[in-house]
Design goal:
This protein is an alpha/beta fold and 217 residues long. The chain contains eleven helices and eight strands. An eight-stranded parallel beta barrel has the order 1-2-3-4-5-6-7-8, surrounded by six helices. Strand 3, helix 4 and strand 4 form a beta-alpha-beta unit. The radius of gyration is 20 Å and the shape is globular. The model has no long low-confidence stretch (mean pLDDT 95).
């Protein structure tokens, strides 16, 4: 499963990218607003750091404007993926952009029928929002399973990009089910490596090694 960072924090993007575990980035208007920066400057900077897909969302709701904005955003760099909402207008813009070779991420997916339409429109990614579904007492992980089954049944190439991830358990569920990608906010990404037994074990091993008085270097 590919791991994307959901955010625009340049220091964190550089940190994870330098380790070699970062496969891509997703952004949205809320994330860009928090950065306080110009969207084109933010995306240009990120695409120079990360080689993988960088999703950038349009602001329009009309298909023609979405298409034009998508063309403008995709011109920033070759690895830009245009994010469009799953609406009829969004699907029309998706099909047009995809046919022209532009990578598209259909976002705000909350049902398997929406995911089916995204695949038919040749989206590169579809983003089911599992956290928001859980918030409304629905099973976000189950939606991933439904989409996975549909895509396997018909050989669709659209990748399932699990979004709105709130917990480490969400990441585990997505990986177990077989989501292609999980886009993870910084506060959850930082916790993926942590476990109290790892910390206590490392402390013990370090103390024991120091007692030997030896050095590997």
């Amino acid at each position: 499963m590919q791991l994307f960072l959901d955010g625009s924090e340049i220091d964190k993007i550089i940190e994870y990218n330098n380790i070699g575990i970062l496969d891509g980035i997703t952004t949205n208007p809320s994330i860009i607003l928090k950065s306080g920066k110009n969207v084109f400057e933010v995306i240009a900077e990120i695409t120079k750091i990360v080689k993988g897909s960088v999703s950038v969302e349009v602001s329009a709701t009309d298909r023609e404007e979405m298409y034009l904005q998508g063309k403008k955003l995709s011109a920033i760099a070759e690895n830009v993926t245009v994010k469009l909402p799953i609406t009829w207008e969004g699907l029309a813009a998706c099909k047009r952009l995809s046919d022209e070779g532009t990578s598209v991420n259909m976002t705000l997916c909350f049902s398997s029928s929406q995911a089916l339409l995204a695949a038919k429109a040749k989206a590169s990614f579809v983003s089911p929002f599992i956290g928001r579904l859980d918030d409304s007492n629905q099973d976000g992980a189950n939606l991933i399973s439904e989409i996975k089954k549909i895509y396997i049944n018909y050989g669709f190439n659209t990748k399932i990009l699990a979004a709105s991830i709130r917990t480490i358990n969400h990441v585990k569920e997505c990986a177990s089910i077989g989501a292609d990608v999980a886009t993870i906010p910084v506060n959850v990404f930082d916790k993926l490596i942590k476990h109290p037994l790892t910390d206590s074990g490392l402390k013990q091993f370090t103390n024991d090694w120091n007692k030997t008085g030896q050095s590997i270097l």
